[in-house]
Amino acid sequence: MSFGLALAGGGIRGAAHIGVLLALEEAGMVPDSIAGSSAGGIVAGLYSAGYSAHELRDIARELSKKGYFLIDPDYTGLMRALPQFVVRHEITLSGLLMGDKLEDYLCGLTGGKMMRDLSMRTVIPSVDLNTGITVACINSAEGTKSVERVRWHTGLRLCEAMRASSAVPAVFRPKRVGGLCLVDGGVTDVLPVALLNAAGEPNVLAVDVSQDYKMPEGVNILEVASHSLSIMQDRLREYVSRGEKLQLRPVLSRDARLLTFRHIEECIDAGYREAMRKMPEIRRLFSPSYPGARRVYRTRESAGGR
Questions:
Q1: CA 283, CA 298: separation in Å to the nearest integer?
Q2: What percent of the chain has pLDDT over 90?
Q3: Is 143 helix (H, G, I), strand (E, B) or coil?
Q4: What pTM, to 2 d.p., does this model score?
Q5: Strand, coil or helix: what is 241?
Q6: How many CA atoms are closer than 13 Å to the CA of 266, on its beta-carbon side?
Q7: Is residue 305 part of a domain?
Q8: Mapped to the 3 state alphabet, what secondary structure does 249-306 carry?
Q9: Beta partners for residue 123, in sequence order
Q10: What is the mean pLDDT of the chain?
Q11: What is the CATH classification number for the domain harbouring 148?
Q12: 190 three-class SS
């Protein structure tokens, strides 16, 4: 039996997904398909590009030390916005961070690979601000079901899809490409189980990293914007019926927030512990006797990577 993995957004907390993948690979339970929103979309995209869980852990560990080099404030936009505010003109600032360094970094890791070049079924959603429609970037639309207010899209580069899905509103500038104005996929679907179902995978293991997130005192404007989105997503979760067979919920520190890179390692460990704790149930629900088990020790070449 094949199975898919759906990964939620959550900023740095998304590093827990790497721990889950480490546990799954150790157990020979490698997913046949993967989907992710925001931070989950980055992990899903890199995994589908062929990076093993151990390689992802190495990348994450490096970011825990040097991740702040990815932060690129839109100084020009900020300087332009101040006089616009003073004279009460329309403010044109669309995000505090440009997101260019993040995209360049992701493009470097994936070699500019297109979504349609991926051999693994991969779904990375974002939201088009022009229409409110979810743009579900996917490696192939073959076998997908029509979903209301969802557009399947195969024409983006993988790094563009990851950058768009992680564009937290007001924090990062939207990703503009091909007439689309794309922001964080978590705006409409923080845990894209339904999209993975619609892409042809009925057996889904979901990983939610967003629960029990409290707003601490003295945080910056980036955290205020991110936390506001998290509250909205929590409320939406109460009304959305999901189709996963099992959901993992790693216990994560409340100090692990949007860009707190120093908490990456502990988030990875938390994801690993949760997956190992639930491994008997994972084995029961998702039989290891499926073709994916033969891909435990993947390389980027064998997984369709660069």
A1: 20
A2: 61
A3: coil
A4: 0.86
A5: coil
A6: 11
A7: no
A8: CCCCCCCCCCCCHHHHHHHHHHHHHHHHHCHHHHHHHCCCCCHHHHHCCCCCCCCCCC
A9: 35, 138
A10: 84
A11: 3.40.1090.10
A12: coil
Contact partners, residue 126, CB within 8 Å, separation at least 6: 41, 134, 135, 137, 161, 164, 165, 167, 175, 182, 183, 184, 185
Q: Is the pLDDT of residue 51 over 60?
A: yes
Tally of structural domains, the chain:
1
**Domain membership flag for residue 131:** yes
Closest by CA position to 200, among listed 142, 139, 282: 142
Domain that holds residue 119: 4-295
Q: What is the mean pLDDT of residues 122-135?
A: 97
Contact partners, residue 218, CB within 8 Å, separation at least 6 = none
For residue range 151-168, what is the model confidence (pLDDT) as tens digits? 999 999 999 999 999 998
Instruction: Please say if the pLDDT value at position 267 is more than 50.
Output: yes
Q: Is residue 233 part of a domain?
A: yes
pLDDT of residue 295: 44
Instruction: Provide the residue type at 49 as one letter.
Output: A
Would residue 306 count as lying in a domain?
no
Give the pLDDT confidence score for residue 275 in this predicted structure: 98
Question: What is the C-alpha to C-alpha distance for residues 136 and 130, in angstroms, rounded to an integer?
Answer: 15
Q: 264-277 and 53-66 helices cross at what angle (nearest 10)?
A: 150
| Backbone angles phi and psi of 64, in degrees to 5 | -65, -25
Tokens of 83: 């006089």
Residues 52-109: tens digit of each pLDDT: 999 999 999 999 998 888 887 765 655 555 554 444 555 444 567 888 999 999 999 9
pLDDT for res 124:
99
Sign of the CA dihedral with 106 first, then 109, 115, and 119 last:
negative
